Amino acid sequence: MTDAELQAAYSEVREHYIGEELTSKRVLAAHLRSIGLTPNGVTWKLAKAAFDDGYSFAESARLALDGDAYSPWEQSATPARHASKVTTPDAKQSVIPDLADPHHIRDLPVASDVSHSDTGALSGFPYFEVATPLQKETKAIQGTRASDTRNTYESAPILEWFPKVCGPGDLIGDGARKLLGQPKLSSIALLVRETAQNSWDARLGDTVEFRVNLRCLSEHQLHLLRSNVLVGTHHGLGIRETLDRDEVWVLEISDRGTKGLGGPVRPDLPVRDGQAMDFVNMVFNIGAPSDRKLGGGTYGFGKAVGYLTSGCGTTVVWSHSKEQGGIEARLIGSAIGSAFEDEHRRYTGRHWWGVPDSANPSASRIEPLRGPEADGLGAALFENQFAQDATGTSILIIDPMLGGPDRESEAEQLAEAILWNLWPKMVPLSDGRVPMDIKVMLNGKPVPMRSPEDHPYLRAYATCLEAVRAENNGTHVDLPLGEVREVRQLKPNKLLGHLAMTRFTSFGEGTSPFSDIDPLGDSSHHVCLMRHAELVVTYEELRRLDSPGYHWAAVFQPLEETDAAFSAAEPPAHDEWIPNSLSDREQKSIVTVALRRIREMSNNFAAPPVGLGANEADASTPVVHLANVLGGLVADFEGMPKVPDLDLAPGKPIARKKSSQPVVEIQGHRLIGVDSRDRMGVEITVLPKHADSKLVSLSAAISAVDEGGTRYELEDSDISVEWESTIAMTLGVDRRNSISFSQTGTPITLRVFYPSDITLDVDFSVTELS
Description:
This protein is α+β, with helices and mostly antiparallel strands and 770 residues long. It is 22% helix and 25% strand. It folds into 4 domains: 96 residues, no CATH class; 296 residues, 2-Layer Sandwich (Heat Shock Protein 90), CATH 3.30.565; 152 residues, no CATH class; 122 residues, Immunoglobulin-like (Sandwich), CATH 2.60.40. A hairpin with a 5-residue loop joins strand 17 and strand 18. The longest helix has 22 residues.
């Protein structure tokens, strides 16, 4: 062919040409694209064979389109299990795959006639002669909107299988599956956290839409996976066994309002300064760090969780990203399994399903399916569609192994895991916006999920988070039943972050039915450690309050400028901070000091004040403010008032002069539920004392405390008071709730029932009777 003829053929398909150098192969590929075909697989082989037989570029492309009418091979390199003979223009007989059996999954070996020169040593991705069904009439879908193809996409493109040949420095599939180590989290919690962190890191604006849909594939979707996507798979993955079932479940995880998986589609090319590498980092690389400032995780590990969750180690990714030519759709399959070998080579156990390099179809480099074909196939396989000009990513986890007794229970566990691990993203900001719009679905129907503000335990953590947010914005907030503290490093003097702590009451209704997901159990006495991006790391368990029904909660968040140290201290699963893992001395010091300060402050906050224990007789005082001891008794978190303080450091005895005056000692207290009028009840045991055993009068001044800390009297109808004692000579109870006795040294019990929306204050005093 002359240069003039090549130039003339090129001019006909100029807009479909990819590449700088003008070659006959690229011109032929452009002619295929011009009629709606993708230059790969059998389509490329047919067109190339026709061109070599003397047909023109346009004729070769048309013959590839009408595959039944032309086949240059006497026998395919790897004949399909079912075949039928057809007559070609030159009367040759050929074996063409028969699609009559939609359940047939090709499990094909490597073609033995592929020379080493054809294996693409540059990228390490070998090319395989995979017998796939012919692509016919695919031009019909060009320009079709994704939303129109859900039920009419019958001529879908067919992806090719690319298992990775072992090369120097390769990560074997078994090793890739173990990269997350042995996380303390449940598999469901780990899946939720890792995928949500990647979505948050990819956000474009202030709110990310995050959807989790556990669903059963339709017959049409299952057929597409069998025949067009997960073809030619090695038996070690178990994909054939999975897809041969009558019912196949998937877990679809998607985000919108994110940038999608953009950038180059080949991992072997140099990276320009500032160029996004989201696609290759997510699909090809393991452990590539996020390039997002204050990012939560690493793309490789977040994706590895999907492989670990899949019963066959396989996922399908569909993404929309903004590229130079506008919004581009990309679709690719990926899997991690065990290493295997055939008679020629050894393979890592990593697999991809895509198309060969579009600029050089004869090369052996894998790329995603792109453009309208990717959108058509993605729209048919996925439930969450892309709106016009929307970007984001959807991941299909095949055969999710979530460990529940049934799919309904697994969907509920997903909702519970999201609540405990993503609740900071569900707490509205000061302007009312929610960072992440999260929904869990079972077969497309919403699964009920409580908000943090409605949860008996998490609403306290949400209160702490709001206080920390205010501190970061330069506004100090007084927590009525708690406090906000600076966490500082002394040498050098440096603010590391803020710790907010609060007390609250709950009667067990916060306990989750899923013990492996709930990090608290039957009591909240934890600090929620989170990154500056408000991504939960862990719940650190510290000192428990002694009385049933009493709890405390705390949240620590580092500053933006110290966040990198805490990020570096995280293991791959991002589920704890390990300062000893850091080699940087400054970062190690930051994390070590912060954890020590957090534990000291939290334990001191939770420590019972002096005077609660029966063995602390020297801590008696004539007047005791029980509101300080209890830390306030509230059931409603709105308008929590500040309780009065006793000027006592935890563990410090009360200094007082020796006196023969009577004193009263609080021996214990506990919540006792509610009465018939739904009022909260508290039971307090006290011990009046007098050195001379004289007659004494014990009084309990009962009042409430408003938001400003001012006491006010309660109506008689609001409260009820009960006294109980073993003393025989009770002189009486007056309207001021006092009781008189003929002797001291015997415990007295006071029960008070009061409205649950107030903070109760009880002042005990004892006087000598004349």
